[in-house]
Amino acid sequence: MSLRAASASIQASTRAAQSKRVVSLFRSLCRDVPKMLIMYGLEHTAVEVRQKVLLQFRKHSHVTEPRIIESLLARGAMEREETINQWKQKGHLLAILEPESGSADAWLDEEEFFRRFLDGTINEETVWAGWDPRKMEERVAKLKKALAEGGGGGATDGAGSTEEMARIEGVLKRLSMGGEKKAAALR
Known about the structure:
This protein is mostly helical and 187 residues long. Helices cover 74% and strands 0% of the residues. It contains eight helices and no strands.
């Protein structure tokens, strides 16, 4: 057997093994979809999410280089592990499931913010358009409740929690007052 024939034989077995691993990863992701929907409280059906998973696999179906396939397999396994262990946030999954929706908040997406800033398309109306003082009050109430129940992040005594709550209340009050003025000026 020549060196070329041996190399071709090894490469064929590697491709077959990689193909089995790709199918195995796809099946495990599809089996985990119902758990993901429950853990992250997603408002998608299992069928929709499985279709998105399939699209991600089909996006790379043209790849034939074994090293790139190995890299994609490792990345896929890592994404699955991070999702199952809840190391991701809901927004990370929504970015994969709904890429066409764009960023939920232009202020959080640095690239979008700077693009819009340089284009001159960010203005006060855009910034304060979705601001609702009632939602701010609800958030403050939830935060107060969490801090009162000891959800202030770690083992702190009563004084530490009170100081933290007062600091956060002050910041939120300043934000809500400034927001009310801005929202009123725009109306």
